[in-house]
Amino acid sequence: MSNIVLHKANTRGHANHGWLNAYHSFSFASWYNPERVQFGTLRVLNDDTVAAGMGFGTHPHDNMEIITIPLEGDLAHKDSMGNAATIKTGDVQVMSAGTGIQHSEFNPNADQHTKLFQIWLFPRVRNVEPRYQQITLDASLQKNDFAQILSPNPDDAGVWIHQDAWFYLSDFDKDVTKKLALKRTGNGFYIMNIEGNIEVAGEQLETRDAIGIWDANEIEIKANSKAKFLVMEIPMEH
């Protein structure tokens, strides 16, 4: 029997700093919920809107796999490894913080906000050499399918990280139903519905609702409207 945890959009932590409007699926910064610290190795899922011309000053990270998925607009990135790049909607970026990095992120556009997911996973190995990777996704692969955007394997589709995790982005038409099987026994699924209405494990997910499922070998997702969503397969043990 599979286990389920439902995280409705309105139960997330929320902090509006003016320049940054942030929703936290898991405890972050000043928002702490003892029942929402992590889901397996998934530690942070922040849904951020960054005002035009604003951003995060230089700050450190270590021993975390950090994935950034822009949803609207662009995000300019600079880091202590010498990388300077702009991540655009349709891209995915990963940083393995490892032994430690410093980076800054800001919205380079003066006339539009930037929306993004920033996701942190605990790595399976500590103190690796920091690394950076950024790719542009083929959105056509997401149409009515599970398009892999992240894996543990450098030779696989998408970016890779130091964790036995697989991420998929999907863009379903109404009434499309598809199943997705686990890649690794013992992993769980965490599904964040980006927009629209989907049905997973008998639960209706509206925009920004999420569901975690474990002890299940596969999931079935049905779109009750046109919908976009992110599926994360992640190790449950940390």
Automatic annotation (TrEMBL):
Gene3D superfamilies for this protein: Jelly Rolls
Coiled-coil annotated spans: none
Domain Pirin N-terminal residues, every copy: 11-121
SUPFAM superfamilies: RmlC-like cupins
Superkingdom in the source lineage: Bacteria
Domain called Quercetin 2,3-dioxygenase C-terminal cupin: residue spans: 149-234
Annotated family: Belongs to the pirin family.
PANTHER family the UniProt entry points to: QUERCETIN 2,3-DIOXYGENASE (PTHR43212)
Protein name according to UniProt: Pirin family protein
